[in-house]
């Protein structure tokens, strides 16, 4: 709203020709209104109020303040429906984009008469970016002040990491790129035997093969805005701790997956076809026997909670429950009950023959791309590991598919 608009409105509302003095008065009002409308909303309203308080009644009972407020109402209606302007930050961002296109703009401007365009690409939206509006959800309005804000976090429960206790695992300062070792190959060349005087001794031959294990890295990243770190400082620290735990779980799961793929499945023992009603205990004992037949000693059992529960619900012939401690049920075995292993599968073996090296958990914080100017951060978590799984040593472990082993142990009816 400009000064002349105010004057024109006063003239149109008046039924008489304004005198020079009245025109000067209206003009001064117009200048004040023009300045007021150039201000931000809050300051503008204060200025308009000050103007109207100083004004009286004009001709024909028309209040000047009514006219001024009418003008203000029209201005605010226009502002509400108009497209918003660029903020200072947006103008600065646009200026940087234009600066980056400076050479391109100068080139096309020299080509007069030709159509041209500029292309600007916006940064991709990152779904995993944590902002103050996404890090917490489920907020509702509560019409009372009597609310207890419980700051303790309720987290998703995960199985404990155990694999480092089940095998020969150690931490090192630098995890090697690879481990190589010589592994004996079965050879039929030469047999030790008794010989008589003067006879030729049999030639005995030994053969070896190089084997390798390569380092792997378990890693991930999280991204969040600076506002998230400011508004939810303690929650951000908790999230970083949760992120670390997630990397360690991936490491634990990776080692378990490797061992499950390496360990052979149960084949047979003299216990096959000898048990009337095979149980999980019988399955474990058959696995121990198979390992012993390969000259190893089983000392580690990893079993799912559902399968373990079967061993805890035994009954006598009358149906009475029988409780037997784990050290009696599984003598000589270090027991790990976890749903990290699928239900229906148990893993049994000599833990010491599986050797693994890992480094410390590494946490890095930094920025990339446009994160600096967009107040965003990235945190990277990673862990290095190398596990040695010799082919020959796999005989010291066995993967027990419980239903399959029960079937192998089942004594045929009538026998």
Q: What does the secondary structure layout of this molecule look like, with pairings?
A:
Layout: H1 3-13, H2 20-37, H3 41-53, H4 64-81, H5 88-100, H6 102-110, E1 129-130, H7 163-166, E2 168-171, E3 178-185, E4 207-214, E5 216-225, H8 226-231, H9 233-262, H10 280-293, E6 300-303, H11 305-311, E7 314-315, E8 321-322, H12 326-329, E9 334-337, E10 345-349, E11 355-358, E12 362-366, E13 376-388, E14 397-401, H13 402-409
Helix pairs in contact: 1-2, 2-3, 3-4, 10-13
How would you characterize the overall build of this protein?
The protein has 415 residues and is α+β, with helices and mostly antiparallel strands. It has two domains: 3-81, no CATH class; 160-415, Major capsid protein gp5 (Major capsid protein gp5 fold, 2-Layer Sandwich). 37% of the residues lie in helices and 18% in strands. It contains 13 helices and 14 strands. The protein has helices spanning 3-13, 20-37, 41-53, 64-81, 88-100, 102-110, 163-166, 226-231, 233-262, 280-293, 305-311, 326-329, 402-409, and strands at residues 129-130, 168-171, 178-185, 207-214, 216-225, 300-303, 314-315, 321-322, 334-337, 345-349, 355-358, 362-366, 376-388, 397-401. A hairpin with a 5-residue loop joins strand 7 (314-315) and strand 8 (321-322). Helix 1 crosses helix 2 (20-37), helix 2 packs antiparallel against helix 3 and helix 3 (41-53) runs antiparallel to helix 4 (64-81). It is elongated, with a radius of gyration of 41 Å. 16% of the residues are buried.
